[in-house]
Design brief:
This protein is an alpha/beta fold. It folds into three domains: 2-17 and 231-360, Rossmann fold; 23-98 and 117-226, Rossmann fold; 392-426, Single alpha-helices involved in coiled-coils or other helix-helix interfaces. It contains 17 helices and 14 strands. A six-stranded parallel sheet has the order 1-11-10-9-12-13. A five-stranded parallel sheet has the order 6-5-4-7-8, with helices on both faces. The chain has a three-stranded antiparallel sheet with strand order 2-3-14. The longest helix is centred in the N-terminal third of the chain and has 19 residues, at 76-94. It is globular and about 90 Å long. The model has no long low-confidence stretch (mean pLDDT 94).
Amino acid sequence: MKLIIEPKITEYEELSKRPELDYTSLEAKVAEIFSVVKLQGDQALKQFAEKFDSVSIDELIVSPEEIKEAILSVSEELKQAIDTAKSNIEKFHNAQMEDFGVIETMPGVNCWRKSVGIEKVGIYIPGGTAPLFSTVLMLAVPAKLAACKEIVLCTPPNKEGKINPAILYAADLCGVKTIVKAGGAQAIAAMTFGTESVIKVNKIFGPGNQYVTSAKQMSTRYGIAIDMPAGPSEVLVYADDSCEPEFVAADLLSQAEHGNDSQVILVCSNQTIAKNVERELKIQLEVLARKNFASNSLENSKTIIISEQQNAIEFINYYAPEHLILACSEASLLAEQISNAGSVFIGNYTPESAGDYASGTNHTLPTNGYARNYSGVSLDSFVKKITFQEITPQGLKNIGRTIEVMAEAEELTAHKNAVSIRLNKINNV
């Protein structure tokens, strides 16, 4: 990890730059995939499966028999872990339901708001180097709570044309009925346009590689909403003398192992902490199954020494990390000063892995600095908010003149007249 000591505020912008991906070079390829899927539907998905996944697919939709077989192959220990995680995620997201009731803004004028589930949602689950069955829980649980009418899940098959059993178990547990053997940009295109097997959705959720990210962005040109702009995963750990260096190293590596382009940042108060963490990184790196990914990621990452706590907080908020771990004294008080982060993990015994899997919070979070203006996925991501109002005749008498005066001032006489004719009726004019 590159070492930076006491950076100036003028250096924050450069230090906050993420690994850049050239999406312009991808656009032409993704656009071509979109065009073919739009024209050829299911046949295109099968052709792209052969081309990109080296597998021949007869039926795109996972059959009930395949799901049953997969469930039997998942160990009881993993099933129990998934069940526990689902329960916690359900509890946390269920608490996000709103019921404001009716607000009488003035006598006879009643207003309220209702959350309505987005009718058709698409969930993309990566299935390549790391089949993310945990993301099934993070997306399908709130989709079900929001009462989305249709949920389609797309995920790439393996070389045998099968889906990872844990993904199928999690999907079945969450009540997802339509599971499609399709990955990459072609899966996003299928959910954008619809095919014989895949419904056209209103909103697409889920992480993915650069092709998936580019495809999601392209889908918005066709009127499809997406969860958020996405990029490589990232974590920032803020550590002082109260930290446990081996914990800090483990947290940095847990994010670094996602991929070569993942970014991890250590902000600490002195060089002794930096050296201790560096030593632990070398020790722990050697035993990782995904050592190459983590090692490549660390080469693009930074250790930043900032001795003054307030300066450190200012940098953290400027950087706006996807995941922020506060491995420091008075971490809870410090957390109150955080304004830009996707999710915050407080104290030495709160690993980022807890949020990734089972604490209950959602792990689909804004990256690349988007935490400055985007929230992570929540129940709200799966609903639309519709406002209602109902006005009684007396209520219109109370508010009517206010509307007339404002409409007249804006020279919108039809707006004024819509009120005036009703007031005349009420007043028998």
